[in-house]
Amino acid sequence: MSLFSLLGAVEIGLIFSLVALGVFISFRLLRFPDLTVDGSFPLGGAVCAILISTGHNPYVATVAATAAGAVAGLVTGWLNVRLKIMDLLASILMMIALYSINLRIMGGPNVPLINDETLFTLLQPPGLDDYWSRPMILLVIVIAAKLFMDWFFATERGLAIRATGSNARMARAQGINTGAMVLLGMAVSNALVALAGALFAQTQGGSDISMGIGTIVIGLAAVIVGESILPSRRLVLATLAVIIGAIVYRFFIALALNSDFIGLKAQDLNLVTAVLVTIALVIPQLKRKLAARGR
Questions:
Q1: Would you call 217 exposed, middle or buried from its count of C-beta atoms within 10 A (0-12, 13-18, 19+)?
Q2: How confident is the model at residue 147, as a pLDDT?
Q3: What is the pLDDT, as a whole number, of residue 130?
Q4: Which residues cross the membrane (predicted)?
Q5: Is the separation of the CB atoms in 64 and 48 below 8 Å?
Q6: SS (H, E, C) the chain
Q7: Residue 269's pLDDT is what?
């Protein structure tokens, strides 16, 4: 695999580590099976792309995209908490609705950003090629997101969200408004996913309606792979594991698709994903069996 392919894998891995952090919040901390991710990821890309293409500042466009994702998460939570729609069904309904909303926002199936200024062109150090600068900028953003998560979920409100996911009945007995915590958790989760979508659109030169297909699978794969590599109940290590999992996942995807002797092509991406997730799920079981035999 060439250096260019390696840096490209790291770049995409860092973007999807934000998706994985969002999925980690919903699936692991809130125990909320959220499929809104497949809609909020292209939502972030759509909002960011349309604002940049119409002359708005890339910083403003990225923040607006993140806020749009938070609103999408709030609506999913509201459907579940206020209208009592089952969590999985509520997220499916929102995901379906976002497909049409994203088309409305973009005014078509895609919005190109070929010659427009983006966050990465503004922050690119002089004399440094973009395939080096983009991973560096993304690394700073991902570290900032991780530190924010570590801080937020150690606050009183963050601990209330974690308590809601662990045992909602006990949390209510302690006076926690579990409904509000679900809404807040879902907003933070989908805000991170939409931020990833906005960054993805800016690195790939535009937004496309199909860019969100399979996002939830990639996010879950990153979480599972990360937890297999670095299993821990401490939040600081768990968020680090998720980021590592996303990068490792994309590295193996790039390695598989760029290895001529294997004979895999771009259309085999879902097959490679399924194999990697299966291996990541089996490894902990093998570890437990080996440990039991050792005892």
A1: middle
A2: 96
A3: 82
A4: 6-30, 59-81, 88-107, 136-154, 175-203, 209-230, 235-257, 269-286
A5: yes
A6: CCHHHHHHHHHHHHHHHHHHHHHHHHHHHCCCCCCCHHHHHHHHHHHHHHHHHCCCCHHHHHHHHHHHHHHHHHHHHHHHHCCCCCHHHHHHHHHHHHHHHHHHHHCCCEEECCCCCCHHHHHCCCCCCHHHHHHHHHHHHHHHHHHHHHHHCCCHHHHHHHHHHHCHHHHHHCCCCHHHHHHHHHHHHHHHHHHHHHHHHHHHCEEEHHHHCCHHHHHHHHHHHHHHHCCCCCHHHHHHHHHHHHHHHHHHHHHHHCCCCCCCCHHHHHHHHHHHHHHHHHHHHHHHHHHHHHC
A7: 72
The pLDDT score that the predictor gives to residue 250 is 87
Residues forming a β-bridge with 207: 111
Residue 262: predicted pLDDT: 62
- Angle (CA) 3-110-63 rounded to 5° is 75
* CB 222, CB 16: distance < 8 Å: yes
Instruction: Select from 45, 73, 30, 54 the least CA-distant residue to 191.
Output: 73
Counting as low any pLDDT under 50, the low residues of the chain are none
Q: What radius of gyration do the chain's Cα atoms show?
A: 19
The ranges assigned to domains in the chain are 3-208
pLDDT of residue 260: 60
Token reading at 155: 């606050």
Whole-model pTM?
0.92
